[in-house]
Amino acid sequence: MTDFAPPSQPNHFDLALKAHLDAAIGPWLARQMFVSDAFDALYTALAEKSEQLTTASTVSKQILLSFIQAITVLEAVQDPRADKFKRLLELIAKNEAASDRQPGVPRIF
User: Fold this and answer.
1) Contact indicator for 22, 28 with CB cutoff of 8 Å
2) Host domain of residue 67
3) How many domains does the chain divide into?
4) Cα(102)–Cα(96) distance, rounded to whole angstroms?
5) Distance between CA atoms of 72 and 77, rounded to whole angstroms?
6) How far from chain centre, in Å, is Cα 32?
7) Residue 25, domain member (yes or no)
8) What is the largest CA-CA distance in the chain?
9) What is the pLDDT along the chain (109 residues), one digit of tens a residue?
10) Closest CA to 62 of 6, 104, 100, 11
11) In a domain, 107, yes or no
């Protein structure tokens, strides 16, 4: 995968995120071929993006579309990672990051 410089703002168009989305969704749209590793890379990219978005009041359409398309494909192939993507989207909507919630660790407010 090509390395792209991250955008200066988390909500600006992100070429690296587009490349991850294309790698995960492209084969599915073209041939209904599921590339598991590409979805792992997409999740990692979105989790990193969640760290940058904790102070943002908006989330770009590109990020939302990435979640919608990934969840749609994962549900189509009955992959349990769809729930993982949904939880991450919920965290972003709550101004939280992927690192804010660790499984098995109670949250202290």
Assistant:
1) no
2) 37-98
3) 1
4) 12
5) 9
6) 20
7) no
8) 47
9) 456 556 667 778 889 999 999 999 988 888 888 999 999 999 999 999 999 999 888 999 999 999 999 999 999 999 999 999 999 999 999 999 998 877 777 766 6
10) 11
11) no
